[in-house]
Design a protein that fits this description.
about 300 residues, MetI-like fold, about 75% helix
Amino acid sequence: MGRFVVRRLLLTIPVLLGASFLIFAMVYALPGDPVRALAGDRPLAPAVVAQLREDFNLNDPLIVQYAKYLGGLAHFDLGVDFSNRPVLDTISQRLPVTIKLTVVAVLFETIIGLAAGVLAGIRRNSFFDNLVLVSTTLIISIPILVLGFVSQYVFGLKFGWFPIAGINDGWYSYLLPGLVLASSSLAYVARLTRTSIAENMRADYVRTARAKGLPNRTVILRHTLRNSLIPVVTFIGADVGALLGGAIVTEAVFNIPGIGRAVFEAVGQQEGAVVVGIVTLMVFFFIFFNLIVDVLYAVLDPRIRYD
């Protein structure tokens, strides 16, 4: 296991380099002049424009710009935005907010999704099973933007159960946006768990466990559920990275100052350094959580060995 983790960590280096170059190229090769976007309707003096382009290396070829970016990255310097604020300061301020939102979303996704999937799987073709199938299909089919506005209006304005915007109420402020963010993933987890449980309930080892006289609870929790969790863990592990980077809509609807909203604002202002720094960090999160998933495989299934 140790050698496997070391190999995966070493493979992270070329993956991050390749991903960061693609992100950098897509951001800086897009048409449009960030200096002109910074000026808005008021044109800047030619000397100011020339100085800004020189300060942010916009006159250099793309490969030279990327080489300079890597030089700063080697010293943990992700550059500065047009207001000379370090990108690391933006990340350090916004990332904890998105992490809290992601933690709440993952808890909803795991607890509700697993519970609904297990109950539907062991009671296949029952009323509850059909209810889970219909409700999850409905949730998946509704865009998260619509779901966010509807939940904000109903549970925030109409009933007053949750704050409708901001993070002034601490963790309580994250409950409604966390549930909205987790809605689609929750539905997928429930369906994955239901399918996996239903298939494993018909497996030979389950029939053998029942023939030995083991209690139904032991058969489900110790044997069936454990072997059914591998596809679910795979999805949740990959989804954590997606939730961290994909909270743009949710953070915009609920006015949450997280990392997703920072990316949205940076794209609108053509702040290339901010976009590249944050998206590269999201790539790292994807790689890290996929490594965690691979390690969990061996915990869930003793037959899986990496050494």
